[in-house]
Amino acid sequence: MPTSTILLIILVGLLALALSVFYYRIKAKSSGKNTILFAFFRFFTLFFIGLLLINPKFKSTETQLEKPNLVVIADNSSSIPFIDRDTLLKNTFSKLKADNDLLEKFDIGSYTFGKTINQANEVLFTDNRSDLETALASVKEIYRNQPSAVVVLSDGIQTYGNDYQYTKMGDNQHIFPLVVGDTLTKEDIRVDRVNVNKYAYHKNRFPVEVFVSYNGTSLISKEVIISKGRSTAAKQKVELSSQNSSAIVTFELPANSIGVSTYSAYIQTLEDEKNTRNNRKAFAVEVIDQKTKVLIVSDIKHPDIGALKKSIESSEQREVWLSDTSLRNIDLNDFNLVVLFQPNNRFKTVFEKADALKKNKLVIAGPKTDWRFLNRTQTNYQQQPTSQKEEVQPVLNINYNAFITDTDFSTYPPLQTTFGQLNFKVPHQVLLSQRIGSVDTENSLFATFEIDGRKEGVLSGEGLWKWRSQDFQNTGDFKQFDGFMAKVIQYLASSKKKNRLTVNYESFYYGNDDVTIEAQYFNESYEFDPRVGLSLAITDTISKQQRTIPFVLKNRTFEVDLSALPSSTYNFTVKVDGKNISRSGRFKILEFDVEKQFFTANGKKLGQLAESTEGSVFYEDQIDDMINQLKQDERFKTIQKSKEKVIPLINWKYLLFFIILSLSIEWFLRKYNGLI
């Protein structure tokens, strides 16, 4: 406490004493022998009030002991029981948490990991994926800047996410893997993966690449067989050895029937091969009758056209043709959608032909668009011609309901457009409006409408190539922009009428994929209605088992997760509660369990992980050695931490109590003595 504060407290004490004595000396004749007692209580009252006015600050030191952390993360994937190590891992998990010496030395946290990491008190082996890298990254974040010993109980086989081998932890975080499983390499032959396009076209042939590998020392010759149902579609011999341990076997298969065709790639087993589950891998191809054909018409060269073509053709279901306004060798009847890029008066014939055939259109306007021509050639929307340019930022309208998009437009650069208000003469929906500077406007940047049985979109800006480039800069790929364009093209190219209930799903999924079905429901005004309940009635066509699952609302989409379903073919119906509205469909889940493809633990990678974090790797017969090292490791010590607090006297609530008590006693004594 500063000297000045101490002097002020002494001064307040002397002043309180002087005032108390002075007051009761005047009253001495009536106070009698109790004068000193009255002055004493008055002194305390005045002194405490003075202290509150000075509000001195006191320092206090708190000491606490901080233990290091012992973080136990156990592999919760189905690969552990597959290699018959579930009991061992469970017992080790429990043993680490219950050891008294470890409990005394560490604060112990226990987790399990599969696709995600979760706090847990037991291991159930229910995950069909294992992502150790994400689990370690989470531990690093949770225990940031805290000394931690991280014990990993796993077979070291990662089937999802980034490679964990060189994961960087904090400076005082060290990993101690316990390798669960046999690390001795056994002779094994396997199908590693199958490369095949998702779609094929009817009466065409499609390529299939089968990647096979061999662990062993012999020279072997085996057949790789492609089967469909009970029949063999194709087969080839392959020779493998220790020097030539992998091969790619290529087939070409006919696409004879429309719909989803399921196949199996199989390599013949070895004699006494222990793990034969990895000798076979299922795959599927959806055979479609025709592509969605899109025609882009332009009389200028522009990078937007190339970006649009690449984006639209990112799906094999779509094909883009380019043409100038002469439409030489072009029959508009062959196309599902016509994109008119920066139209001018040379587009007159194109508009006439497209309108005569009731073709769906997407008009992309910009600074080179001739709005006088566009205003004359159609009457659905109008804009005052001007040569003034401006840059506009996209703003997503969350109430748009023609299709669903979750694209983050806030990171995209502005598009260039011509100054002016776009006025629609027909009912329409605005997906993107314009932000000019920091001001959000009601002017449309991208809108769609339906009229006379056809669909049309109007995009008022150029610079789409910048959006696609920005997408790659943000995420390392073009998926977000290409996904947005896919939904635009899918909606505009379709001649189907708008449904009040829309359902999105894939025709087939692989066994370890996330299987989800999305749905949206619109009221009679075609506005999204989040208040309704949706349910999914699903039937396994093989076992005939039926179940009903409710949808969960996420943002503006209803979603149901079916990832836990076993491989089979399923029929389903989505129903709206209390409404006579439903949609039905069918999908397949192909049999594939990635967790059962490996029979040998990867002790080498776990050892490198331990080495990179200055930890140690242990094996199944070294559990007690690991526990002893953790107990004796001098890097993990309890730290005594002192924390100094500065406490103002005004925060001490008891002082107010003493002031009231002192005044009350003084008052009652004077009252008792008849002085009041």
Strand order of the largest sheet: 16-15-17-18-25-24-23-20-21
Any idea what the CATH superfamily of the largest domain is called? Class I glutamine amidotransferase (GATase) domain
Q: What amount of the residues lies in strands? A: 35-45%
End-to-end distance: 41 Å
- Shape call: flat
Q: How many strands?
A: 36
The structure class reads alpha/beta
> Any idea of the CATH topology of the largest domain?
Rossmann fold
H/I helix tally:
15
Q: What report would you give on this structure?
A:
The protein is of the alpha/beta class. It has 5 domains: 3-60 and 647-672, no CATH class; 68-181 and 600-637, von Willebrand factor, type A domain (Rossmann fold), CATH 3.40.50; 188-288, C2 domain (Immunoglobulin-like, Sandwich); 292-493, 3-Layer(aba) Sandwich (Rossmann fold); 501-594, Immunoglobulin-like (Sandwich). Helix content is 26%, strand content 36%. The chain is built from 15 helices and 36 strands. It has a 9-stranded mixed beta sheet with strand order 16-15-17-18-25-24-23-20-21, with helices on one face. Strands 4-3-2-5-6-35 form a 6-stranded mixed beta sheet, with helices on both faces. Strand 23 and strand 24 (439-451) form a beta hairpin. The relative contact order is 0.13. The model has no long low-confidence stretch (mean pLDDT 89).
